[in-house]
Amino acid sequence: MDWYCVMVKSGGEKAFKKDFEEALTRSRAANKSLPDAKAVFFMKKMRDSKRREFEQALFPGYVFLSAGSVDAPLLQAVKKCRGFYRFLNANDDIQKLQGKDFDYLSNLMKFGETQGISQAAFDENQRIVIKSGPLLGFEGQIVKVNRKRGRATVQIDLCNNEMKFDLAFEEISLNESARTAAN
């Protein structure tokens, strides 16, 4: 199965995903030719200033589709979903995710659709060291760290679009992380 990126109305990701899943169900019930496919909409767990957890969209305005290919029936079904804008690069030039784009998506998929809170420590040079969680593997793309709020800003180039997003982390000491690794 290949992965594709779909631009949708920001805040309308859940509605798009619901419509897409209903279209697939209707298609299967009517024995029509929509291929096996699924939609993934990433959420992230964050903490507010009072350290209360909440969830929000990781990539507002983007939903990822897994399908063998995007043929005419699938394209028409997707176009009918609420909030649909376009496939990336364009509806007449639909590109599957590959290379770094696919690697980013694969890394996120390891943690499911809801990205949890990473564990991080700071070395003697005050550089962030990710020990576990969804930030693992993104160390090279961390462009900003807010230790007080427990957030790291990651910058990636996804489908030729520069994107920045925040992920939460909880700080642990390097000694604590060594003890955790030993267990």
Q: Rg, please?
A: 19 Å
Major β-sheet strand ordering: 11-10-14-13-12
Could you tell me how far the N terminus lies from the C terminus, measured between alpha carbons in angstroms?
37 Å
Uncertain parts:
177-183
Count of helical regions: 4
Sheet with the most strands, sense and barrel status? 5 strands, mixed
> SSE order, as H and E?
EHEEEEHEEEHEEEEEEH
Overall form: elongated
Helical residue percent band:
10-25%
What fraction of residues sit in β-strands? 35-45%
Q: Write down the overall mean pLDDT.
A: 86
Helix/strand/pairing category: alpha+beta
The counted number of beta strands is: 14
In short:
It is built from four helices and 14 strands. With 183 residues, the protein is of the alpha+beta class.
Record the SSE blueprint.
Blueprint: E1 2-8, H1 13-29, E2 37-40, E3 43-47, E4 53-57, E5 62-67, H2 72-79, E6 84-87, E7 89-90, E8 93-94, H3 100-109, E9 114-115, E10 118-122, E11 128-132, E12 142-146, E13 151-158, E14 161-171, H4 174-182
Parallel strand pairs: 3-9, 10-14
Antiparallel strand pairs: 1-5, 1-6, 2-5, 3-4, 7-8, 10-11, 12-13, 13-14
Description:
This protein is α+β, with helices and mostly antiparallel strands. It contains four helices and 14 strands. The chain has helices at 13-29, 72-79, 100-109, 174-182; strands at residues 2-8, 37-40, 43-47, 53-57, 62-67, 84-87, 89-90, 93-94, 114-115, 118-122, 128-132, 142-146, 151-158, 161-171. A five-stranded mixed sheet has the order 11-10-14-13-12, covered by helices on one side. Strand 3 (43-47) and strand 4 (53-57) form a beta hairpin. The longest helix has 17 residues, at 13-29. The protein is elongated, with a radius of gyration of 19 Å. It starts with a strand and ends with a helix. The model is unreliable at 177-183 (pLDDT under 50).
